[in-house]
Amino acid sequence: MSIPSTVRPHSEPGAHAASMGERDFSLDEMFFSVTDEKGIIKSGNEVFIRVSGYERGQMVGRPHNIVRHPDMPRAVFKLLWDEIGAGRPLAAYVKNRANDGRHYWVMATALPTIEGYLSIRIKPTTQYFAIAQDLYTELREIERGIEGPDGLNRKEAMAVSGERLLAALRDAGFATYEAFMHAALLAEVRAREEYLVEMRRGPLRVHAGATAAQNGTLQQMAEMNSFLSQLVLRLDEYLNLNVHLAEKATYVRGLAGEVQLFALNATVAASKAEGHDGAAIGAVAGLLRSQSDGCNAMFEALGEAIASAAETLGHMLFPVAAARLQGEMLHSYMAETVDQGGCASGCGDLMALHYCLARGIETLTGLMTELDGRLRALQPNVQNLRGALKTMAALSLNGRIESARILDSGQFMTLFTTVGDQINDAWAELDELARSSGGAFSLDGRAVARLTDAVAQAEAAILSYGQEPLRAAG
């Protein structure tokens, strides 16, 4: 799977959206809100306040469904609450309603915190967004039809709508909602990252009112986000490697059986030949079959190693996108609090953002380390199998030489030529596997250390923010 092309705004933001009854925000903006475990809004950043159209005092202390749009299927919110209630992050397209009645669409990533939930939102632009919009219209029609005018059958409506949601996603090629969610978030974050690169943002701004230590923390956070940005921009490479590894695992596991079958056919054919010629061919075929039997463990070991690497890589993709959003959101809000000279929520927002980022980075670096180990483990398996294939290639060549000495040896020649071709193909496949799983994806230990250090320094800075002004004196 590759990340799809995206639709990016090139006109002045807001003009078209306003005429369509939509409150717009730009692709480089992001906003968040923090709620308690019951969904009561505790706080949010300035972009959230602006886009929603509410005053801060109108929102804090009220249920988050104050911004729920009636076009949103209940089944989607049920999915969201089921997942984050179980401690798992979830991403979803959400249509919200602002205070003035206009709507705005977001790709929301919801994450559990220590005392509630954090939702980070960006502007959606990819083809997955179009899929969601069409599907949501259908789901809401289903729900309204079952609920009736009095809305008494909501539970049944959500169940039917939820079943239709999963069926529609399966029809679109996604086995589960999680598979769709992962693909959509990866695409949206990648699209946004490409847009930011296109905009060619300048160097990090030095905050004049901040202390040297605070500017140092912001600089380190920016460097961390730059590294995460590079990971996001390589998502296509990782996705392609994942597909490549899955294909190679299937190929390697099938190859052993094919070579054994050809060797068996050569042995059977040789047994029907008379005299010395048949015996010579049979000896070569027997050695080839014995060698291929002996390679079974090598084939199986390589197949399992490839499958393990692919599985780890698949698990790593969502955390890459999520960590990128979490890192930028924390950095942006830290800068916002420095500029405002204080932390309106007693640094609770910063701690909630940091908590999610720290967990995300811990997950990501763990998976990066695991992936690096699994990819490195492929190399000795590849070398062992190469040695075995070299022996099998020599045997197939001997088989062709012996076949050439026999009259009417077309059958033998075909068999040994086919085996030789399979072995040559396998050699090429192993070469490609070694290249694709090698240095380009090896782990930079210093980068992991920088990620961890940046998260630790951010925590120290946040704790100090609670004890001293955010601006330098004077």
Give a verbal description of the structure.
The chain has 474 residues and is an alpha+beta fold. The protein has two domains: 15-171, Beta-Lactamase (2-Layer Sandwich); 235-460. Helices cover 68% and strands 7% of the residues. The protein is built from 14 helices and five strands. It has helices spanning 15-19, 46-52, 56-59, 74-85, 127-147, 154-171, 177-199, 212-233, 235-272, 275-294, 296-340, 348-404, 410-436, 445-465, and strands spanning 31-36, 41-44, 90-97, 103-112, 116-122. Strands 2-1-5-4-3 form a five-stranded antiparallel beta sheet, with helices on both faces. β1 and β2 (41-44) form a beta hairpin. α8 packs antiparallel against α11 (296-340), α8 (212-233) packs across α14 (445-465) and α12 (348-404) runs antiparallel to α13 (410-436). It is elongated. The protein starts with 14 loop residues before the first helix and ends in a 9-residue tail after the last helix. Residues 1-19 and 468-474 have low confidence and may be disordered.
Derived from helix and strand composition plus strand pairing, the structural class reads alpha+beta
What's the number of helices? 14
Number of E-state strands: 5
Helix content: 55-70%
Shape: elongated
Q: What's the mean pLDDT score?
A: 81
**Strand percent estimate:** 5-15%
Q: Which regions contain 5 or more consecutive residues with pLDDT less than 50?
A: 1-19, 468-474
CA-to-CA gap between the ends? 55 Å
Number of domains: 2
Strand order of the largest sheet: 2-1-5-4-3
How many whole angstroms does the radius of gyration measure?
29 Å
Largest sheet: 5 strands, antiparallel
What string, H for helix and E for strand, traces the elements in order?
Answer: HEEHHHEEEHHHHHHHHHH
